[in-house]
Design a protein that fits this description.
Six copies of one chain form a homohexamer.
Chain A: E1 11-25, E2 31-39, E3 42-49, H1 53-57, E4 63-74, E5 77-87, H2 107-120, H3 124-136, H4 138-141, H5 157-175, H6 181-190, H7 195-198, E6 199-201, E7 207-210, H8 212-216, H9 219-234, H10 238-250, H11 266-289, E8 296-300, E9 306-309
Protein name (chains A, B, C, D, E, F): CMP-binding protein
Domain OB (chains A, B, C, D, E, F): 27-87
GO biological process, one term (chains A, B, C, D, E, F): rRNA 3'-end processing
């Protein structure tokens, strides 16, 4: 009974994550609960009509609930008309983590992969800075998403993004061997680290809000300051520190996307493109998973509001688009 | 005596490619020859003052010449004051190809690599289209540059660009295995093929001019029409043909760069980014080869007029930036 | 009882085109039908409250219905509260074509006009291409609109647009007699022909959707390919074919509107401006027909969201703005 | 010996308009005269080397001179090396007007055509305003160009532009008969009238400079103020005056081209497009007259820096592109 | 019981301005009144469910009403569920002006301040123009807002804006004493005067609509014409009149904001920046008054959709942010 | 014999700053020196023809020289043909500082004014940060210009800019008393402080070049890092430090001018506008000082390439535009 498989007329009986909840008054002046229910595959709006006072107070966000109801349609979107709803309890033997969209690999495993890349960095100054930052932020890296809504907005999405980019970087540096791999690895690991301070996330891996500092400065400047300070504390070479800061500063590439300087070293240029590729592949895979072969997807906001087309002959042979590398 | 090593005061005696030539009248009303001389490493302006009628008629573009002269400076640019100049002859035992900037691998070898990728394409329709086009254009592919002035504007630059992109694509498709490799390989091989009809190049691998069709339609539309026609002749699946055409149409990504449609399949998205990466790495490597460590390069027009910085600790260790993968 | 004359409080009894229909659930959880009803003069939203199962299944889109109801207002827009509704039958003696917004001249007559212009083309190559394409597409030309929502989105709107543009072209070519009339006529007839393959329209002359090819390539590229192929089949002069293709490619004028090349021949420049004039005059006439003298219209989306002003002294004398040239 | 026919090596002996003149010092520190010579077909740069004091003082701008010299080339442009030069005198029987690029019809005749259109205006208020303004400005209208450098920058070019636009308007209003012809004619006649106060022109029909008011306000605002004042003096209907002012204000269409408001009546919309068409046809005809069939022109600055293509089969039949409608 | 202090659950009993009113039909097909109620501190939406015919006809806009009801929430916005409502009468002893957002100083007093600045103008021509215009427009100046929705959209907001700008100008001209104070004062007083003719406002100081002339020409052109005419009537120096007109024309600075010319005198440059500062300070103060210390405001549309941050240590010491200079 | 008073034909005998110097070869192949000579009022190009080897080696940049020569014109610009030139020596009793464009007040005096503003800051945290930074940078503040070419590119121009902005801020804060003066003063003093590390200037107050860090990060990020570090060292309140950093980050206002965030507090908004006003007044005063009354200036690059108009009645009365507040 996965959300992305529901269709009008389905009867529903199962568990969901109660992602958000609001008590509202209908236009005929009756109270009802307006809910967002989620599982790993998506979200659906639910209505509990004519709700009682206990209904109002018996639930709160970010718990699991058991729901019985019927799927209808309202303004072209599915809606779950709830008949019964109760909080899940221990007897239900359901686990939160089965309901949260999560990176397809385990956090500890991905963290280990990143550590191995750090070990491969030959420049000791870069290694010092990177090692210290990922150690200090390890706790949060293990569950932080990479964004509130865009690409990699899943639990441990930031770590998954970093890890995948490192793999890409390793491969590209065999094609362009004159590239400084140390800078590239360092820049990739650090490029979005400021997001951990820019946004506040709960442990279930969803961004709750932006921090005050995040709004006033943004993760690029926050990340630069962190590198600067650690570099000074560690006494590393000034040029090295400067170049890593420049990579952060320029990785959005265009002023209107937050980078006042464009890349001035090839490693910064590559960082930008690897970041773009990994973000786009994540979002496109997502969009296509919910699309029928030979059809166009809905418009996807983060992809310049494009529709995507899913070829009718996809995947090439025996491959498995839906499950390949997903939730490993 | 390579051009990129010359400095004011140097006496010059050696062979050059006479790239362009014009007879002019100075402001004190004397005739002189204004020449562009080139070798593999760059170009220099030359002046033959007070030239005679034989001087005017004794040379033409695209031959090798032997020159004696002195390096001076004029408005911050080097200039060669020519004392003696004559066409090179058989006795000089110099070969044109030693003077033309050329891709770092042999054309036949690169063509062979591309063929191997074509063999790996499992979709027979894609393979048919691609095979036929690279066979038909083989003659010109072996020497065509990829542009008049931008990236890969060297002999066989187009082939080198395609071949490198294919290597990158193969590597990326191991990171994103759900991608349709057949489409990606096909799109890469075909994406700039229209340039062969858009521009006219001499066999020494320099673009002479744009064709009438090239100016009125551009290589994207030219390439699309070619795929369309061959697909019809070969009777291939319509969707396959359409998707390859879409990849051509969208690979510049933005309308103002010539793509009226943005990519609607992930393979088209990847094609765009692989194209960008390979072009940028080529241009940046070029710019940095002529830059001192710890210094900024000149502004580079094709890189949004940026200066590039060459790190003082480049390359990491024992690597060889200057010669790695250069002129094979 | 024309739709554009309805006002709140009116009782309605008559026939309408059922343009679209959806069964919805209200916020107090009852089913109702949400309908779009249309006649030649416009559209109105209708609600059938508390609908039964027969109501749900007894209707479908694109039929004529008889409706009894009352006009109300909802969020500043008129709404028809339906009391009774039934499909029209033969006994009603109403005809679909009386309810569809249609070009003001008969299709066959307009097609005849276009044919006469084709005969005036002296260049045999242009004539061959144009003749064949309008012959092959005649069936659809007779009812296709020129757009889904913008200008000339009426039955046979594309043909009406072409025909009017030809008349304008003929007149302008007497002012600028050095213009090549053959190219201009040819370009006009072909300029939007790709739309017939870009969009799918039902025979009642309304666009149902974009085709897959239409979305991946767009009507400009589709039209170019068609000319290219037919030109090759007919063995026409290459330059002629190329110029017609260039006219298609450049007729949107700006890259961001879909033209990667700007016009490079005066006939292409004229084609663009004639296209603009005819589209704008159509849209402005429409907007002003529903506006009171001395007042501004609503904002019109397709006219850069402008309001139009209807002068209080319009038309000059005894002219008849409302009916001039309307529905012939 | 027309300027547009000269080529390197030609010996020159003939009369020219001395359009501008400057005494300069060469880099070897000798004085020379730097001249711009013109006839109806174009301009050429001339040098009088080693000039004497009499040379310096014996000439001034805007006279005719007789010149003997030789055509050379300097930085890809033709240059006339002057051997002898003297002012033309009565005995030479040459007339200034044979040397100035001029509209192809006589001013008085064009003025008469405009008057006839004014008579056709049925709205007496519009007629009053227009009549008075063209009467008051008649003297200057007879020789003013429409611009300093762009389209219609020839003697009486403004009048020629107005007259041609009126002819186009008349023809278009038969295709769109619901258009208010009075407003359209009025708007066309007045649309650029402010240019007469924005720029100062000598009687030979060349703009000398912008006026202070022209620079601080621009011809659009200047024209609006003139209409406003005359309308008040003549006591015409306020709406009429307002609409004419709006047509002036909006006729450049885009804010960045000087129109803070977009057209809000169809007559203003048409005015804009008729203005564009006439300007573009003028500039394109000019550019193509100097281009070989089957070739591209130079880049033309006022046409977005485009090259134009002259078809190899132009004109259609027996037409005469070069001379059609040129210089009456 | 000020509107900006209301929260869900509050019982309401008091007087409000009935700003707008509409009779609607709910989705369960019952009539209700949809009202906007206002006081000096803000606006709230109100609903009178199941309204009778007397309810429909017993009220009209822009009167005071007494209301009893309950505050609820609907889609994250407060909503007043009305139980009783009646028009206020004389016995209620409430005064309209206590309910309208108004400039913080008395109109007569502000008008007096402006007059004193006019007296300080030493250039008699500028003084003549300014004196006459503010005298002629005095009636409306005393209550006109400066905008429909943006900055200073309060009763007498235009006068308050002018007066504050004059104070700023006086202070800046002591820092830049070479500035021509006369022009600056004149430009400030006149810069938005055309708004009085561009928009129609009721005496309670709210813009009702744009005038026809306002929409066709805009306040900048309207203001220029007024200066031009008065200057001619008063026989003032032409340059003076021209410079004031130029200041109006250029004070929006960018073409896309309505200024076809950028400032060409320093006084026009200053006028623009003083205008910006005063508008922004007004809007920001407003936004922050409703924000908690240490928090961000809602997004503010007129401030490029920014959120503002209210510092936790604001104001510095003993200052009184909330009431400083507010409603004097 | 000030440079801005020279005209063609003048004989020159006097001292100048030798700002830059280059040895070149003329087109007739002779050596000459190409010099830029400057005094406080401007710059002029000079040529020493047929220079000897001693000429080449006898001078270097940034010394004073005595020159005899004649003013000519070359391509509409003045040029000084040098007859004699020698370095100035002690016997000449000329002082470097008389030849360098310098702020109109003494550095020590301006520094004192800034200190007094620092004392007025009541927030001890802001005071601590500001005090320490201006103390640490005092040496360079006393002579640094604010830019390489734009506004305040004079000796001690940065200090003059800060000081003037503080005066403006003080005055504005009496008009908008709810503004936090401490933040505003702090933000002004710090806003461009990063420029001292972004650019390298010699003690004569001219920028020599950009530093590596300046190019890779820019003065905004450099300044933020400095505040961040000092704030941590001084243990100041985090919000205070953050707000000052935000003011730096946002003071260019638009992403394309280097500010990834727009101002979110009114003090940051004011900082931006005060910065703009002071820069523009400086540049406009400069441009007008060299312009005749009643005329337009040359186009000024830093003012969007505008021409400025100098009124014919400037200054109002007895004021002294040329010397007011200039060079104290």
């Amino acid at each position: 009974m996965l959300i992305n498989l529901l269709k009008p007329g389905d009867a529903v009986l199962g568990f969901f994550l109660l992602k958000s909840m609001e008590c509202k008054t209908s236009s005929n002046n009756k109270k009802y609960l307006d809910l967002t229910l989620a599982d790993k595959t998506g979200e659906i709006n639910g209505k509990l009509w004519d709700c009682t006072e206990e209904d109002e107070t018996g639930f709160h966000e970010h718990i699991l609930v058991k729901v019985k109801g019927l799927i209808g349609e309202w303004q072209n979107r599915l809606q779950l008309k709830i008949e019964k709803i109760r909080p899940a309890g221990p007897q239900d033997e359901v686990s939160m983590e089965d309901f949260i969209p999560t990176a397809p690999e385990s956090s500890e495993q991905m963290y280990g992969v990143v550590l191995r890349y750090v070990e491969e960095i030959k420049n000791k100054d870069i290694q010092k800075i990177v090692s210290r930052i990922i150690a200090e932020k390890k706790d949060r890296l293990l569950f932080y998403p990479a964004a509130k809504q865009n690409h990699h907005a899943v639990k441990a999405g930031l770590l998954y993004h970093i890890k995948t980019m490192l793999v890409v970087a390793e491969k590209l540096s065999t094609v362009y061997p004159w590239i400084n791999r140390d800078l590239l690895y360092g820049g990739i690991i650090l490029h979005d680290m400021g997001k951990i301070d820019e946004m506040a996330a709960g442990e279930i891996g969803l961004i709750v809000d932006y921090t005050v500092e995040g709004q006033l400065l943004g993760h690029i400047v926050q990340g630069i300051k962190e590198i600067d300070q650690i570099a000074k504390e560690e006494g590393v070479d000034e040029e090295v520190s400067l170049l890593l800061q420049h990579m952060l500063l320029s990785h959005h590439y265009e002023p209107e996307f937050g980078s006042p300087k464009r890349p001035m070293i090839p490693e910064a240029e590559l960082l930008h493109y690897i970041d773009m590729i990994d973000a786009r592949m994540f979002d496109m895979k997502n969009a296509l998973e919910n699309t029928t072969q030979g059809q166009f997807s809905e418009r996807v906001w983060v992809l310049h509001n494009r529709k995507l087309y899913k070829t009718s002959f996809h995947p090439p042979e025996g491959g498995d688009f839906e499950h390949a590398e997903r939730r490993g």
